[in-house]
Amino acid sequence: MPPVLRLDDVSLAFGARALLEHATLLVEPGERVCIVGRNGEGKSSLLKLAAATLAPDGGSVWTRPGTRLAVLEQDITTVADAPVRDIVAAGLSAQDAAQDHWQQPVQIDKVLTRLNLDGQARFAALSGGWRRRALLARALVSDPDLLLLDEPTNHLDIDTIEWLEKQLLDYRGALLFVSHDRAFVNRIATRIVDLDRGRLSSWPGNYDDYAQKKQAQLANEAKENALFDKRLAQEEVWIRKGVEARRTRNEGRVRALQAMRSERRARRERTGQAQMAVQEAAESSQLVFEAENVSVVLGERTVIREFNCRILRGERIGIVGPNGAGKSTLIRLLLGEIEPASGRVRRGGRLEVAYYDQQRAQLNLDAPVAENINARSDFVRINGENRHISSYLRDFLFRPDQLRTPARALSGGERNRLLLARLFAQPANLLVLDEPTNDLDIDTLELLEELVAEFQGTLLLVSHDRAFLDDVVSSLLVLEGDGSVQDFVGGYSDWARWRDARDAAKRGASVAAVPRPQQKPPAATITPDAVSKPRRKLSYKEQRELASLPAKLEELEQEKADLALETGDANFYSRPHTEVAEKLARLAALDDEIDTALARWMELEDA
Prior knowledge:
Elements lengths: L4 E10 L2 E11 L4 E5 L6 H8 L7 E6 L5 E4 L11 H6 L4 H6 L4 H11 L13 H13 L5 E5 L7 H13 L3 E5 L3 H7 L2 E6 L2 E6 L2 H33 L11 H16 L20 E12 L2 E12 L3 E5 L6 H9 L6 E6 L5 E4 L22 E4 L2 E4 H6 L17 H12 L6 E5 L7 H13 L3 E5 L3 H7 L2 E5 L5 E5 L2 H15 L21 H5 L7 H28 L9 H29 L2
Parallel strand pairs: 3-7, 3-8, 5-6, 6-7, 12-18, 12-19, 14-17, 17-18
Antiparallel strand pairs: 1-2, 1-4, 8-9, 10-11, 10-13, 15-16, 19-20
């Protein structure tokens, strides 16, 4: 079967900057291809080329005749208000309306049911996550052969991201998407396409595979460039000698030098990487925060109910929960920006706070970039030494000509970097980051992650980036939307495993049968009866089931590993479409089977 999308020798430039230079790309039926690259490299422009909303300067963009193409809107604010059913129906093209008029209501009802949407609800009345769900329904209603997504997880909470992952794993068309969410890319992508200095390169497998191989490639490239530059420098010394270079028998060497000069001029260097560092203040007191029976009421809603915790110096706390559950409210409560309706919050002494606000309210958008760092001077004091603001901001990838530009003119990613520059210009022993990863490219995100991981003070982190949470926090405060706040030891993946096992157990057993890694189950789930209830004796059938589960889990894990290896092969997508679809469906189903078997094992072990 021919590909659904092909780019042949495509070039695209905006002004003097070339985004694509003779780029080639094939997307096969059933593939899920993620485009990665640094901010400004042209990833969104590549999606626009695929959607035919942007024309290339050279080369051609071809889609297979009859291909149904759909785009998931990135900006939900541009969609006019209407009933959800009408929003979804708008995803059917005029051709669909003419050819399948009698099937339209069935198609619409099917996708509304699949995504659990109320067709009569007004789009404007929905939360951001539910609006995203309605727009996905609009994209899927035509059963597209190719779906284009640009940063689909931006500003979504983790629950919605995990829901989106399940929908995309069930989708059987081809998927071309841009994302900086590494966990999302690892779960969804079957191939990575890297956009680097105008060139596209393909890397079978997930993001982790790509990152390891890309790092080795860049190291090899740097080594080759250094050797080339050394030879060029030697030849430049030779040519300046003059007399020997003009001898006829050396004309070939002169021409070779001219060719080397041309090659060096044509080389495109990678965009510099941000150089960030936290200025650490003197230690705070041992106790940073203590909350006792604290409740917060906003309007008629109790956002936080009878919250208790102690946070000590050096602890690294992640705060997670659905949008609207109260994560930012919890931070403001701890910092003293709002007062509790009941209970009390104690704050330790000698706290020096660096606070990253997800709404970027700390930026003066009408002031120049430089004045957002220091409005009173051209210098900023970093680690006890004065640095010129131009030099400091260069570490955050700002050009000198941007220093007098109003912050309002910056892109989302640039505003994020400016806020980080402002944040790290002050000493701190308490780092508070509220959704710091939105709009950052993966390279900058990983640098921020490394910096936060090395910070010696206390950390409070709100994030929907599961990989970021796993790498930098040691415990979680989990808000599930009902006002309760659970304290959990471990990273997000630990919590997700425990939550999934708990939910699986709820379907067939008591929650008390599910052990909590490294910590007792939340107090809210323990009753006196559950605590004092003796362990029952397993039936003969249950004993045999328990004995067989380790081997079953090992078998499922091996099948998953074998399938992952098979689907990651470069020639996998050249197979018949039905075979590709069956293999990918089986790979997606294995995760659920493994989770179910694990939950059952834990249930029987603790019975």
